[in-house]
Structure formats: C-alpha cells, structure tokens
Amino acid sequence: MSTKFNIGVDLGGTDIKVAVVDCEGIVLYSDCISTEAHRGYGHTINNIIKAIKNILQKNNLDISQIGGIGVGCPGLVNPETGVVKFLPNIPGWINIELTDIIEKELGLKAGIDNDVRCAALGEYRFGAGKGYSNIVCITVGTGIGSGIIINGQLVKGANFSAGEIGHMILQDTGGKFCGCGNTGCFETLASGPSIVEMAENYIMGGKSSKFRELAGDDPITPEIVARAAGFGDEVAKAIFRQAGYWIGIALTNVVNLLDPEIIIIGGGIAKSGNLLLDPVRKTVQQRALKTATENLQIVEAQLGNDAGVIGASLLVCNNNNKKNTCITG
Ligand SMILES: [Zn+2]
To answer: Domains (ranges, CATH) in the chain?
Structure first.
C-alpha cells in the first residue's frame, strides 16, 4: 500500500486551476489555464484533460500515482451521478456527464461538487475550520455562496442546491434585481460588484475619495476600495462598513438557523481582513440570539485561492468527511 496523490480541479468562468494535492491537503504542484468557455463545453473539458496530463508530465508523475480527480464546478451539480446540471456563468453546460467523460479519458476515479462546497470542505479539513464540526463557510466575490457542514457532514440538500446564501432575501421591497431573477438578494448588497457600484455612486455624487486616484484610468475594483480604506479614506471605509453590515445581517439569520461553531469568510473581498470582519462581527453580536453567539468565531479563510482545489481533491477520497481518508493503493 503506497499513498497516492489526488488531483483537484477548480473550474471557473475565466480560468481552470489544476493541482496535485497530497493526503495532508498540501498543494504539491498547480497550474492555471484558460477556460475558453466561448468555445463550448467540449473544448473546456479537453482543456481540463490536457492540463491534468501536462501537470503529471511536467512533474514526472505517473498516472498510477494518482488516486482520483475531483472537480469543483461553479453551479448546480449532482455529485451522486457526476452530472453538471447547470453553470450560470459558463454557457452551454447543461446536463453534462463530467465524471463519466473524465473517467473514460484518464482511466481514474472522478468526482464533482459545487465549487463553494469544495472550498468549505477544504477549509474544514485543512484550513480555518480544522477541529470544528459545525461550520458555515461563505465566499464573497463576484457572487456570494456558502458551504455548510453540520455534525461533520457536508449539507447538500434534496436537489443539491443547499448553501445558496447569496440569494437569501434581505430586502422585501425596493431591492435591486439579482441574476437569479429575484429582487433584494444578499448578493446584490455585499458582493464585489455591489462594492464597486457603491464606490462609483460616491464618485458620481462628487464625494472626493482616494479610490479614483488609486485606480487611475482603470476601472474601480473592490481591492482598490480596500486599499483606499487602508489609507484611511473615509468613503472607502464607509463602503466596507455597509457591506460588512449586510454580511452580518445575512449571517445573523444563518446563526439563528444553524447555530454553527465557526463562520469562515473567504473570497476576494475577505482579503480586506478586519476592515470587513469587524462590522460583520459587530452586527452578528448585536442581532443574533445570545445563546448562539456566546462562543461563535467569525474568521477569515486560511487556504485562499487553494481552498477550491484542495476541497475538490477530497471528493475522491474514500470518505471525505473523516480523517485519514486519502485513497491508498
Ligand atoms: Zn438572487
């Protein structure tokens, strides 16, 4: 019996990240290639297969050293049948039998799940959630998603749709339209695009602020707003307070419903650290039930951009929710 490595794939709308991950959740080798979504799903799948073959070849690994391949997908998947049902940001991916295709092409066991659930699994086993059994991991980026682990088990839901926290409705009237077709969703209030929109509105309103100066001729990004806040810009700080407030309101509902031990916040916006986390913690402490907040931790994710590939690599472990689970052969 020798320990094998697994391959984790994080499929995104723009890039595909591929990594060779060991039993301890360490990324040994990784590569990033373009999704080229406009060329159709068949082309993207070929890119994934090519990238896996390349990473093995480049690092002198034989396919026999790999236990399996896990793929995190940005949308609705059925992990039991291995079918990608629908990816909202990658057109053409409807009912694609992804694990079958990968298994046939590479002769290895394959597994799939939603990308945010993969990230939650990664944080749970090897990141900020290590040692806890009741975890909510949210990612705040272009959209907002979450992975929920209760009593050490990943919650998937009857239709594999659990964790869609971004579409929790926080404004019953007058809210902005959301990509899901509803209005007033959490995602319209605190995601990356909503931070940028607030910044642009402040600029249009004639408020002087550091982020226009920092961006130069380039578009404003959440990172620029965060940098401006770091320089002490009051408008930028107010934007993060506002986003943090809404995240805190959404998480108050989550805390009252699920009573987690720890909430892990990841994604591009979370890199702003306490600038975002302080208003989140304050809101949850003020608004959630005391019994649920007494020992509650709200922390930044630890695995950064690797959470997705590390979690995906765990999908092909014998039992991805328990310890010492890497496939051995
Ligand atoms: Zn929505």
So the answer is: 5-120+306-314 (3.30.420.40), 130-302 (3.30.420.40)
Q: pTM of the predicted model, to two decimals?
A: 0.91
Ramachandran angles phi, psi of 173, nearest 5°:
-135, 155
Ligand 1 geometric centre to CA of 117 (Å): 18
**141 alpha carbon – ligand 1 mean position (Å):** 14
CA 35 to chain centre: 17
Q: Which residues contact 127 (CB under 8 A, 6 or more apart)?
A: 264, 301, 302, 303, 307, 310
- Distance, first Cα to last Cα, the chain: 5
Q: Tens digit of pLDDT for each residue in 42-52?
A: 999 999 999 99
The stretch 282-296 carries a mean pLDDT of: 97
Q: Does the structure show a pLDDT above 90 at 324?
A: no
C-alpha 3 to ligand 1 mean position (Å): 43
* Cα 213 to ligand 1 centroid, rounded to whole Å: 33
CA of 167 to the centre of ligand 1 (A): 4
